[in-house]
Design brief:
Length: 109
């Protein structure tokens, strides 16, 4: 039930992404037309709106990419087929990352 509701939420986010990409065309086209033709005046809000929409496209797109398993990750240590060796590799990464991660969380504003 939860997986199905999350899948429907992800589908809703995909539709929202399509709407945002379509909406991004309008301010960018207005910028291009205003800059190169002079038919319409140069509106400053079009650049801000395009930036705002693009940021939301990136954020929502990363959520969808993580859900689909398409978001990239960096493997510093190649995964092993041996489960015991894999456990020790993950433990080593955790031991190296955790002491650095806690101070980063403490100094957040």
């Amino acid at each position: 039930m939860i997986k199905r509701s999350l899948e429907s939420l992800c589908n809703l986010l995909r539709v929202l992404l399509a709407v945002l990409v379509g909406a991004l065309i309008i301010p960018v086209a207005m910028q291009v037309i205003a800059r190169y033709t002079g038919i319409i005046p140069v509106y400053l809000w079009t650049e801000e709106l395009a930036t705002f929409i693009f940021v939301w496209i990136v954020m929502i797109g990363s959520v969808v990419a993580v859900w689909d398993g398409a978001h990239f990750d960096v493997q510093v240590i190649p995964e092993s087929a041996n489960p015991l060796l894999l456990f020790f590799q993950k433990a080593l990464v955790l031991l190296l990352v955790e002491p650095l991660w806690r101070p980063i969380r403490l100094v957040r504003y």
